Amino acid sequence: MSYEILKKIQLDTSGTLFELDINAPLIAKKAFAGNFVLIRINERGERIPLTIADYDEEKGIITLVVQVVGKSTLLLSHLNEGEEILDVVGPLGNKIHAEKYEDPVIIIGGGVGIAPCYPQAKELKKIGNKIISILGARTKDLVFWRDRMSSVSDDVIITTNDGSEGIKGFVTAPLKELLSNQKISLVIAIGPLIMMKNVAITTSGIEGLPKVKTSVSLNTIMIDGTGMCGGCRFPTIDGDVYFACVDGPDVDAHIVDFDNLLNRANRFLDQEKESLNLYQDECKALEKAKGESSSND
Question: Which of 73, 58, 63, 60 has its CA nearest to residue 36?
Fold first, then answer.
């Protein structure tokens, strides 16, 4: 099976955010909002889970949005159109439960989490829901897919930490205003753990606002993606234990022990830095060898 990169688009000016269209007809045929894939770039590469950001069954294409944070994502960002990814496995994880709600659905995407919000908004809009989307990022350069989200939303609200676009501040500000002014059936939040924690608090009812059913995606804590490694296990506030990859990745926000997850979020940071540094040193050595070879010729 050939997993060719059919299209590559840089989504930001700094070159850390990319959209990739991948030839994967069997996966595209079964994909749905909430699913993810495991990819392995080459025979020496690690397996990493990436949420499916879009899918086209007729064209046999899945879309991935990748943010460069370590060796594997950096290596993936170096691939160009026409090149291939060695392994793409999926769709994995549970599909979202899509139903028609009486009142609006709020979908909140933070940073690269905007990408997996799109298929959820698309599927919920398709069956007649009113969708209010809130897109948040540190700065306007990191807000992407405005047009896509607008095409499946009745309203799109943008927030940036620095105020460079939309509302200055965090996604919880417009969320609180919406909850104060109208009845909401469901809130979906996908993004950094701290963002999802604050959304969960906002919709829990403890701040005097109405309690609203809320879903969050725990794809950021997945490693193996098949339930075998145990790295994505998460405790609930009631003491139960679940696995994000097989029980999720979308789960009830109000049962998640976010403090536990935040404490564990950087547990592989040293290993990730070491792997990235070794890869960059290897690249520099290869470039130096090429330069010396050219000068000798």
Answer: 63
Structure tokens at 151: 């095409």
118 shares a domain with 27:
no
Q: Can you tell me whether residue 3 is helix, strand or coil?
A: strand
Cα dist. 218→197, 226, 267 in Å? 11, 14, 16
Same domain, 85 and 109: no
Q: How far apart are CA 82 and CA 207, in angstroms?
A: 52
Range of the domain at 33: 3-92
CB-count exposure of residue 74 (10 Å: 0-12, 13-18, 19+): middle
Mean pLDDT by 10 residues, the chain (297 residues): 90 90 96 93 86 95 91 87 93 91 96 94 96 95 94 96 94 95 95 93 91 90 70 78 81 88 68 65 61 59
DSSP string, 86-141: SEEEEEESPPP-----SS-EEEEEEGGGHHHHHHHHHHHHHTT--EEEEEEESSGG
* Alpha carbon distance 196, 51 (integer Å): 17
The type of residue at 163 is G
Q: Which of these, 153, 158, 125, lies nearest to 33 by C-alpha position?
A: 125
Other Cβ atoms closer than 10 A to 120: 25
Tokens 């020496």 — which residue? 44
Query: Is there a single domain that holds both residue 111 and residue 248?
Result: yes
Answer whether 90's CB lies under 8 Å from 151's CB. no
- pTM flag (> 0.90): no
CA angle 254, 234, 273 (to 5 degrees): 120
